[in-house]
Specification:
single chain; 106 residues; 2 domains; 3-stranded parallel β-sheet; two-stranded parallel sheet; 3 helices; 5 strands
């Protein structure tokens, strides 16, 4: 997997448990939240770093999916990119100007 550009984001949520590569993407003065069980996160620079514990909640996820599918919950997608072109999604985020999340598809 290609590394994101170093220190180019104000904040990162590391839901993929990438650790150091995700932390490296946060610019000084930014914030980082990592998902356990990756272990405690220590900021190497002037970054606010926290770790949260996530537990699956099948009922909550099903409810959110129903809301999204029914149109009651707005789902913003900036675009779709094949998984093999992950760096393109990073480039698009860095370029800015589009709201929503990029969907990486197999």
């Amino acid at each position: 997997m290609t590394e994101p550009p170093a220190r180019s984001f104000d904040a990162a949520i590391d839901a993929g448990v990438l650790g150091r590569p995700a932390l490296a993407a946060v610019r000084d003065g930014g914030s980082f939240v990592g998902v356990a069980p990756a272990g405690p996160v220590t900021a190497e620079r002037v970054i606010t770093a926290r770790t949260v514990l996530m537990e699956p909640d099948r009922d909550a996820i099903a409810a959110l999916l129903s809301l999204g599918a029914g149109g009651a919950l707005e789902v913003r997608g900036a675009g779709r990119v094949p998984l093999r072109e992950t760096t393109r999604a990073y480039d698009e985020v860095a370029r800015g100007g589009r709201r929503g999340r990029w969907l990486l598809v197999p």
